[in-house]
Design goal:
Blueprint: H1 12-30, H2 35-57, H3 62-81, H4 88-120
Helix pairs in contact: 1-2, 1-4, 2-3, 2-4, 3-4
Protein name: SPW repeat-containing protein
Transmembrane segments: 12-30, 36-54, 66-85, 91-112
InterPro entries: SPW
């Protein structure tokens, strides 16, 4: 796994983050949402997916994993902050995808650090 972590487009945790983001973006298609829930899921989901793609393209970008963790926390707290905690489907989607995004970002952080260390020594 250490060998593949330095190559672009090979890290499974970053692929998982892309999938989590896409699921969040598409959630308003099959869950009842209000305007706040819909736009929160779309915007934060798109940011999670885009940051996952950036991390896949540039495996040594350590701050990308930190951004993932922050986005996951924002997604987790968004039902309370944006006022859609009473909408069970949208709220649970935010909570679950938020936690999974934080976990994936935290697990990918050591791989990003290792890839960054290898590429930093080559400059």
């Amino acid at each position: 796994m250490a060998e593949t972590s330095a190559r672009p487009w090979t890290r499974p945790y970053d692929w998982a983050e892309v999938v989590f983001g896409v699921v969040a973006v598409l959630t308003p298609l099959w869950m009842e949402t209000n305007t706040a829930a819909m736009w929160t899921l779309i915007v934060l989901g798109a940011l999670v997916a885009l940051d996952g793609l950036a991390s896949l393209a540039m495996p040594g970008m350590v701050y990308g994993e930190g951004i993932q963790i922050v986005l996951g926390v924002l997604l987790f707290v968004s039902p309370w902050v944006m006022g859609y905690a009473e909408m069970a489907g949208a709220a649970w989607t935010s909570w679950i995808i938020g936690v999974l995004t934080v976990v994936a970002g935290a697990v990918a952080l050591p791989m990003a650090n290792a890839a960054h260390s290898r590429t930093a020594g080559q400059h």
